[in-house]
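Quiz preparation item.
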């Protein structure tokens, strides 16, 4: 693959989601030997303050400072770009990008561009994401700027419970059932494309409705990481 540049991963939100990103990256690279794979610098920090506590419950510490510290640490270690396999944490991208001189591969922008390319203006996007993402309107804003409408599942509480269950017990049956029900809800609501925008739900992405057209933000991030790592080393990807 030629010269490869290291990408820094702001990880631990949650740990399984970070491991999922690594596995997908390994699977996506047509490697013949170890040195064909993408060099990663991973800050696996499960102690990042809860995004749900801060954004939904209003009781938690702002995670921005912790994420900025991680970003600086990764840049100092030699990362040439950053990636963060947590959709909700993208609410704090301002703190991250202000702390470093290297780019953040933004999952929200990647997903919005992907949806616009697939659907064109007037398309309808269904969101499989944390209620915290809905609350902050991260995706709603990015998608509406591209002429797309957005629909959400009816039961926020069920999705939040599924996220907490996956964090505690892994991809269990009850969480899969909640994701399936939400996906069916989005089909009924007329979604032309469903976006999995919670990396916990990426762990159960095979549980969506069979008639749903689905894209996963983790998969989009994988491709962006590969592109950032394989950019011509004579050019600045920032």
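Solution:
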């Amino acid at each position: 693959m030629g010269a490869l540049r290291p990408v820094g991963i702001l990880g631990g939100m949650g740990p399984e989601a970070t491991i999922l990103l690594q596995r997908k990256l390994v699977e996506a690279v047509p490697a013949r030997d170890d040195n064909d794979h993408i060099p990663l610098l991973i800050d696996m920090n499960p102690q990042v303050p809860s995004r749900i506590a801060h954004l939904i419950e209003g009781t938690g510490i702002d995670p921005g400072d912790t994420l900025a510290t991680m970003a600086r640490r990764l840049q100092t270690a030699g990362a040439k770009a950053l990636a963060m396999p947590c959709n909700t944490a993208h609410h704090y991208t301002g703190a991250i990008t202000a702390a470093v001189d290297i780019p953040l591969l933004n999952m929200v922008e990647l997903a919005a561009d992907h949806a616009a390319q697939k659907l064109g203006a007037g398309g309808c996007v269904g969101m499989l994401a944390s209620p915290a993402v809905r609350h902050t309107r991260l995706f709603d804003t990015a998608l509406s700027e591209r002429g797309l409408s957005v629909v959400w599942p009816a039961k926020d509480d069920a999705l939040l419970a599924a996220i907490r269950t996956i964090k505690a017990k892994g991809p269990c049956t009850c969480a899969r059932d909640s994701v399936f029900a939400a996906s069916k809800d989005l089909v009924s609501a007329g979604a032309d494309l469903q976006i999995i925008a919670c990396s916990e739900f990426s762990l159960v992405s095979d549980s969506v409705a069979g008639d749903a057209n689905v894209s996963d933000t983790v998969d989009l991030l994988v491709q962006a990481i590969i592109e950032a790592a394989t950019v011509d080393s004579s050019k600045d990807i920032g």
